[in-house]
Predict the 3D structure of the following.
Amino acid sequence: MKGKKKMSNLIQFENNKELKISHFLTISQLTSDEVHFLIEDASKMKKLQKSGKPHAYLKGKVLGMIFEKASTRTRVSFEIGMLQLGGNAIFLSSKDLQLGRGETIEDTAKVLSRYVDGLMIRTFQHELIEDFAQHATVPVINGLTDMHHPTQVLADLLTIYEYKGKLNGLKMCFVGDANNNMCHSLIEGAAKVGMNISIACPKGYEPNKAIVSNAQKDAKKFGSSIEIGENPQIMIQDADVVVTDVFTSMGQENETKKRLTDFKAYQVNEMLCKYAKDDFIFLHCLPAHREEEVAGSIIDGEHSVVLDEAENRLHAQKAILRALMQ
């Protein structure tokens, strides 16, 4: 018996724009036009939802969601997103799958492709999701790996655009652990849309060199820059957007004590943010640890847009789902 046909990777929407994309694994795999396309469609999804207009583009479609890491925003936004698009989502814990008992990724990907129309995976090793995409015959979406968090960054770019009215030419500053999934995807996203990005991190916590090197090509193409330094006051100077993340990510709990010491000078607080522009906005993917990576006065203050950012996960997810599964 023959399996499912390999999915078409050319999507044409009613506005006659085309998006050529088979999977959504990293921002780097997209062109600049594709990133802008998804932001534009996410904005459209948001307007449709706010106006109460139906947008059941995925009626009858089913998304399989595999979780090896805990989640609040990722699970809820994808599940609700599929419902609002007219489809359904199935939650699959790693404990529910035979992967935990030794079934190969290849077999799991091929079997699940017979049941569902798309797969979203939130896991640890990025190689696992790459393997899934290689063997699946349906689109695969990266809900988070240790190396990348592209769905979050698409929501971040949408949020920045809503508040600043543009992306090109703005300056974003990331403060904290730069060798993590958020910083990596922010570097890639900023480069794709022509944003300057500066990164303040202690020695030993720099972003992955290969990711930076690859993003530098896009930055050069679109006239933006990527800067990395240890002094947060210098890196945050005149920033339009300030971003941080937890100092200790999932799976690093045994390093908590050391990390709190190493990042002591990297808290985003009022003193540090005086170096940013007066109208800067603050982003955090959440969950946040107040008084660790960020002061309560910042994340709960007038510059914080973290709740809009969290809501925009829903709209960004819907744009991704539509692009891959319609």
In short: Residues 152-309 form a domain with the Rossmann fold fold (CATH 3.40.50.1370).
